[in-house]
Hints:
The chain is of the alpha+beta class. It has a domain at 22-40 and 82-91 and 105-123 and 136-276. The protein is 30% helix and 31% strand. It has nine helices and 13 strands. It has helices at residues 2-5, 9-16, 45-57, 73-78, 165-174, 178-195, 230-234, 237-246, 251-258, and strands at 21-29, 35-44, 88-96, 100-109, 116-118, 140-146, 151-156, 198-206, 210-213, 218-219, 222-229, 265-266, 271-276. The strands form two sheets. Strands 1, 2, 3, 4, 8, 10, 11 and 12 form an eight-stranded mixed β-sheet that branches. The chain is globular and about 65 Å long. The model is unreliable at 1-15, 130-136 and 165-183 (pLDDT under 50).
Amino acid sequence: MNWFLKLSTAVVIGILLTGCIEMHTVITVKKDGSGLVEENIFVGKEIINMFREFASSFGDSTQPQQEFNLFEEEKIKAKTSEFGEGIEFISMENIVTEEKEGYKAIYKFKNLNQVKVNQDPSDEMPMAEPKDGSETTTEYVFFKFIKGKPNRIEFKLPDEPKKDEKSIEQAKTDDTTETNVEADSSDFESMIKFMKDMKAKIEIRVDGKITSTNATHVDGNTVTLFDIDFAQLISDKDKLEQFKQFNPDSFEEVKKIVSDIPGIKVELNQEVFIEFE
C-alpha cells in the first residue's frame, strides 16, 4: 500500500509498541511426504485501528475511500514462495474478534523436502516491512523426508550466529559511554513494550502415529518446535535482566535464554528426527 511508504520509521515503531501480535504455524505431514502448512497471524485491534486512521489520513480525498484491510489476500498469496519451491496457496480466511484481527492461510506441498519455515516471528509481522537496503535476518528450518517403514522426518535448527571479536570489542567500548547506556536502556524499554503481548508457536503434526523421536516436546502426533509467550519472559525479572545483558542477535539465541522459563516450550536438540507410521 502506497500510504505505508509515507510513514516515518518513528511512527511505525510507535504503532508496533502497542497491542498484541500472535503467530502460529502448523506443518502437517502425510505418509507420502506431502502435506499442508497452516499459518495463523493475529494483530490486536489497537494496532489495526491505528493503521485504519493512518490509511484514511493519507488517502486521496478526491477518490472513493476503500475499506482498509491489513491482510490483503494477494499479499498472503505472494508469501507462497517463502515456504519453498512447489508450494501452492489453497485458501485464506479472515478472522475478526472483539480483541484482534487476523487470518488463517492454508498452503499445500507435494514434497516436504522442498519446504522451509522461517522461525523468527519478527520477520513474519505483516506490518514490519523491511526498509530498502536493510539486512534480512531470516532463520529458516529445512526439512528432510525419508519414506519407509516407518517414515522419517529430519530437520536441523539454525546455528547461533558467531560474534566476531571486532563487534564484541566495539560493544564493550560503547557500553563505557553514558550516552550509549541511556540509548540502550531506552531501546530495551521499547522492546519490552513490544514483546509483552507477543506469542509465537511452530508445530509439526504427522498424519499417523509417532513411533520414535528425540524431540523435546511431543503430544500425541504433534511435535512443538517452540511455543513462546513473551509475557512470561517479561514477568521473570532475572531472565529479563539476562536477556538485556546477553543482547541476542538472533531468534535462536532468544530461544536459548527463555528455554527454562516455566510454561515456555523450546526444542532443545539441534538435530531432530520424527519417525511415524
